[in-house]
Please model this.
Amino acid sequence: MNDIEYRFLSIRKSIPKNINILAVSKKQEISSIKKLYKIGHRDFGESYVQEMIQKYQKLPKDIRWHMIGKIQSNKLKYIIPFIHLIHSVQKIEHIQIINKIALKHNRIINCLLQINIGNVTNKYGITNKEAYDILEDDNYRNMKNVKIIGIMGMGTLHGSIQQIRHEFDGLNKIYYECKNKYRHNVLSMGMSKDYPIAIEYGSTIIRLGTVIFGNRK
Model:
């Protein structure tokens, strides 16, 4: 068993079975992805469209690709034919474009709204009010080829444990409001340094890169 397999399986055994692991494979070699694929893992996250396309073309087609990076509207057309889940929606304009392209491909694209849980100006994401505005938008409610199924957020990178707990607790509260009102079922939060805390606060998807693949060379 190689190091990547060992680290992944160790984490998998240590967390509840209902928690999905998204292996963040951005800037990782094809060979590293294949190691996880070989042991049955299928969910991989990328931040850059061109890199995702190259990997999609070279790897098995039953892999579920997740877009976790900032959305570039003019590049959405390249990933809509195969994307599994888009984690980083922040504008109604994104949703309109996704819906229009998905219609051409006869697909329904699942998305998450990215929430700025700390309301920090240098972090990506929208406020909970902006999220509710999107969910209540008549244009979105009439769309047939895009579906918001949950929310995503990132804890402060170098925040204290107390701060991260506060942020994840806040995101959890937003999630349950959305779950009750809009039937959301995905809460994507928690990365390599804070995923155990995210699980405590109800995360359903944890996004793990370094803790599985090791430090990038």
